[in-house]
Amino acid sequence: TEKCDEVLATPLPYSAFSASSVVxxxxxxxxxxxxxxxGAGGWVPLNSDRYQWLxxxxxxxxxxxxIATQGRYSSSDWTKQYRFLYSxxxxxxxxxxxxxxxxxxxxxxxxxxxVRHDLQYSIVARFLxxxxxxxxxxxxxxxxxxxxxxSYWSDVISFDGQGVISYRFRAKKxxxxxxxxxxxxxxxxxxxxxxxxxGQQGDxxxxxxxxxxxxxxINLGNEKVPVDACGSLLDDDHWHSVVIERYRRxxxxxxxxxxxxxxTNGEFDHLDxxxxxxxxxxxxxxxxxxxxxxxxxxxxxxxxxxGNNITNLVRRKKTDTSSFRNLTFSCAESRTFPVFFxxxxxxxxxxxxxxxxxxxxxxxxxxxxxxxxxxTPLLYGGVEVSLTEGKVTVHIYVTQKQNTRVDISSGSGLNxxxxxxxxLLALESFAMLTINGDExxxxxxxxxIQIHTGGxxxxxxxxxxxQLPGFRSFQGCMQLIHVDDQxxxxxxxxxxxxxxxxxxxxxxxxxxxxCVPNHCEHGGRCSQTWDTxxxxxxxxxxxxxxxHTPVHEQSCEAYKHLGKTSDMYWIDPDGSxxxxxxxxxxxxxxxxxxxxxxxxLLAQSPVGxxxxxxxxxxxxNYSMSSEQLNTITSSAEHCEQHVAYGCRMSRLLxxxxxxxxxxWVGRGNEKHxxxxxxxxxxxxxxxxxxxxCTDPKYFCNCDAxxxxxxxxxxxxxxxxxxxxxxxxDTSRPGxxxxxxxxxxxxxxxxDYWNTASFNTPASYLHFPTxxxxxxxDISFYFKTSSTYGVFLENLGSSDFxxxxxxxxxxxxxxxxxxxxxxxxxxxxxxxxxxxxxHKVEAERNIKEAVLQLDRRYRxxxxxxxxxxxxxxxxxxxxxxxxxxxxxxxxxxxxLKMNGVTLDLEERARVTPGVKPGCSGHCSSYGVHCxxxxxxxxxxxxxxxxxxxxxxxxxxxxxxxSGCMYFDSCYKGLLGPLTTEANLTxxxxxxxxxxxxxxxxxxxxSSRTQDYLAVVLRHNGKLTIRNMRFYIYCGSVLQLDHxxxxxxxxxxSSDTExxxxxxxxxxxxxxxxxxxxxxxxxxxxxxxxGCLSRVQFNRVAPLKAALRSxxxxxxxxQGVLVESNCxxxxxxxxxxxxxxxxxxxxCVFLFLFSFTMACCRSHVTSVFSAGVIAVVIxxxxxxxxxxxxHMFRHKGSYHTNEAKGAESADCADAAIIxxxxxxxxxxxxxxxxxxx
Length: 1235
Fold this sequence. Notes:
mainly beta; 13-stranded antiparallel sheet; 11 helices; cell adhesion; Contactin associated protein like 2b; Fibrinogen_a/b/g_C_dom; repeat; membrane
């Protein structure tokens, strides 16, 4: 096609130009031609204000693609900014809009240089207006212009609400696979059918206006038909373009350059239409699918249906137009004269004075819930008509003699952008308010006073001098204003008739629907006022100004590294992409995280029983769409799904050379002929691969026609999940088949750990241009020891987007969408170059820009109220360094842009200076390894080594627990497990739960007389007993939530726990010398209950026994059963009684957590040179020796503090005095110390 860029204004005669005013004839509008010097060199109005305009009549409708301006030749007069209006008729002007606003064009800064603007979209019009908004401070408004475009011609058909165009098909029935329909329309009516076609089978296609919105319905033979709405305010008497493209079930619906795509319901692809398709209404028919609807009133042009020019056929009388009373090929001029109000506008009209009847009516449309519609002063009082929270309220007050006030209100939701009418009639005794012409619902009120009109009527606002605090002007449009039952000639007011106005737009309604197109993403609900819109994101799974930012993590892997434990979680793998978040089961009990998605097929479901069918199809339904399932399998490192086929005379796969009886369908609706335990291309079952089938002649057990089962795991993840099974050998007599398909289980998240290391300042990765015109988000992790560097950059002609590390504590996000560079900077209180992972999240949309660091530090910058909103980029996206910027040294991980993860590792493998992967994850995530677990580095992450702890699980948080019965005991040798046989420090930690006492919990013996015992006394008190702990022994004990207690044993101690030998749990079965109190009072019948998380220094004996079985250095007497009886609710969900082996043997009343630490140091002797010191030392040593041989020192500690501790001489005495249950015998050779 030829370029539409002809000069249109310069060839026009002088008379084609007109203006609001001129200084003199030499400055007339006809001299306002670009680069011309006629007259005084351009147009200059009489006054320099915003009410001036320059108008051009192109003499015919033209297609406009560009405009240019220039100041008055060789002068100080020029225009700095202007707005551009266009019209077909010279009335009902339409403002040129761009990026959701009435656009203000930047113009000239001197008188000679011209400035051209190519329009973002072309327009068709005959009349054009330039409205100066700003001008030279040194002079006046001065203007010369040019318009660029080309000729435009089209047949126009006027519809009067009666006529319908009927286009008959050549065949009686049309089976249509592909449609292309386009037309243009203009109307002042908000309802009407634009086109309709239907068939006998129930198929139909309807395009209809409803409340000034366009609705498209396509039924290809389905019961439920979605209604897709597009646009709004389409009753504005301006041309609107519609294009409908359909191929099979895929539909593109375009209105005024805005396209929305969808798929029709059901499985049918063809649109079956009978006889004809109609335009302008629905032809009366006896077909059952016919629906009523208003006929269209307005004009249409350029009607095309699948290559047929309908408007041309109508002109040539090739279609049925018999329903038209008077078919015309021109569009009647609108008779309305709308007025446009902004926040500072008002219109003052005059009426009758001192009259006893007031009658005022008007039509309005607005988005604002509040605003003044009308104010008129009475001779004694006033009347105010306002919009209050979407309803019309009237306040009539009279101040004559006594103050009287009457309030009336009616309507609701009147700030919906639609035209609404208001009529107020006030007589001597009553007032009546009517909304939208519905007199049956008019509101009446009695007026106990007489009305005396004042003669002045303010519409939309008041004079600034009369405004009170809190006053709100009207923002919107009005038309058909009647005062005293007379239609006001607003065109005459514009030309000087009685009346006054300020800051209003005459003969235009520039209302904008800021929710069309809807910038609220992911189903966010859009609401608006006159100036802006807002999005309600509740319940969408997204947040932010436009509901763009995902609330949920991308995978179970991401939840794990936030420290979460096994549970059901919402995940959003594509982030801000189109897929909705969905719920999965995250199993984090192993080193690898498993994501599990169940289906609705019960285990061993019978297939084909009693059905005389050759093939039976079993459909599997998952709790999410196939697209959502595909995102799991695509990013996973490994996926699997267990399948089992139980059979009796129901063959499965047949031989590898024969046709399979059964197959399954997976991802992409592909058929697969292998079974669990086998692989693609191998028509075998697991037994065929392992060569152990029941009948060696077959490769599946079931193919031998016996009662068997074939089961295994499908592990080729690109084929998963299983969507349905087709079973083909169940119709023979006696055939039985039972099918099991387990949940889809996937492991790992390649996107989360997709990492690249940048090793030189000049190294970078490049990707295709980033597409983020109106909404863009970028997120990634970085790790560096460098102080600065560019993370990524993408450039356009002037637009750009960049993220960089500005300093060791600051990250910046900068961009330009045409309004000038914008930079957001977030600072961290701690250095970011600490070689730990940090997360950066940046987002830019038409409302705001956001930069967030480490989920905590954040900066938000609002977008300007008017300006460019589209980010237009052309270069490649560079990650690491580009365009001479300072390169980044370090690692970048999990780079996502608008929900798409960039494959850094793939590019890094072929790029010099960049390597895939990154080491050093433990520096950031090692904190998640708890209870002494050690963080171990891995290529794509890390793991926690729990081998030297009493805990298991991915974060060493799952304590191993065992259930013990009467006379049960665990015995383990400590010598081989400890680094030292003689200990100077011990730490014993464990949890227990029991309802039986007394009992031995833990007993540690030695090859000497040293021992350590923790026992539960018959009254439920916990006691620590030990022997031969000597000088300077300090101990710390922590029980449950009670405060830690530190204490020292008497100064008659040794320094070591010598020759540690054995640890007993639950009961003591030791040979040799044992404290008789332990045996007599605590050892029988033994501990009954739960022990958990037992750890003595670096040894976890209970865990070792339960995980690895009993070694040669350990033994179990009685029964020790693994249980989760001691598990914390924060780590493992409680096991049900049906599966918990401990739940059937005993009832646990309490769960205690116990920690004890004891340390000792060697005696340091200090000798005095004096004789007295030597004597004292000898005496003390003698006393220590005598005491050591006369007494056995033991200690017991009670968990409940004595209430009389304050009055006792020491802690020991406090316990003895206040413990009436204490009854142990102290013999001649032993003494007990209660600590």
